[in-house]
Amino acid sequence: MAQLPRLYALRALLTRDFTGARRWASAAGWLSYRDPRYALVEARIARCEGDGKRLQQELTRAEHWGADPQAIQREKVLALAQSGQLEEVEPQLIAWLAQGDAEANEISDAYVNGLAMIARFDDALSVLESWQRDFPDDPRPEYRLGRIQEHQEQYAEAEASYRRALAKNARFPPARYSLGRNLLRVRRAEEAVEVFRSCLDIRHPEAVQVELAIALKTLGQANEARPILRQVLAADPARLKASYVAIDDQPEGFEAAAEYGKLEADAMNFAEAEPWLVKALEVNPLDLISRYALAVTLRGLGRQAEATREFDLVAASRKAMDSAGALSSRIKANPEDLEARYLLGKVILENESERTGLYWLRSIFTFDPGYAPAHELLADYFAKKPDQESYYGRLADYHRKMAAASRLKADSP
After folding, report:
1. Model-level pTM?
2. Distance CA 44, CA 51 (A)
3. Do 362 and 119 form a contact (C-beta atoms < 8 A)?
């Protein structure tokens, strides 16, 4: 009797309806006491949500209840793959796909996501081609392709991919949201507004509301954007986080606070703007636009010394970023210029965006898996953030060992 709700739970995961998936999984658990298959479904939900702690708890419970060890190992492998930790698990992923595994679509999704995270786009496109061919009704291959194209600033191609995904499933939230975001990037804000409005029927629309507010502000409709952002800021933080998970996004900062703070700063409502800009910078200290808005706000409040300090921080970061343009040109001229990739990743990591900086540093390993300077920098980075993600300590150890091995090899006669 529990098999049907388990299937419904897994089907809900295909559209990232995590609330529905948990409801069906709970029903399956109620119908089958201590069934390891129920714990495995809960583990998969946790993995797809990116909740590593809960994933481990559910896998421990599944093991305690006698689950198939291979099924437990599969979720562990897919969790590592989707987070870009492919060093140890990639041979297993390739073997599963070569064997025509029954869950090749889930394997492909995790594998492509991991490959994209470490800038192995050619390999990701190869997996995507097979995934599209073998699962023609699944919108996720087209969506993943669109994400890669958008990252590479191929916006027209990304739009086409998102629309193809929606032709397969018109209610696939990540593709609808990403289409709106892509339209906003190319300054088609009116179209973006319509797309974002069409997304508001999902269970947790807060992330979409933030982008809708940004699009409205772009159109000069700040008075319409303001109440939307206030509504988002009044929501439960857990609900706001869930809203981003549902549309497969993970912002670096507190976007709602940053956008609302900037909106009020632009309107010279400085007393209202300040606390939200401060909150945004607490989450993401590298948000230079919010820091500049805070500096303007502090100056408007007559707190000149504090304003000067913030202006100085912005100026220092912008000066450090002066080298980014030349480094990008070096990489375009010679993609194998690893020194340029390293220097660009380092300056961005320290001054503009940790996520983008990590991307450039990891991209080096496509050309030289043992590039010691990048491994050393990444080891230091992950070692300083042991509480941010459960696997950061393991990543720090891995990069430290790779750096040491590379140095030893270089020093050998």
Report:
1. 0.89
2. 10
3. yes
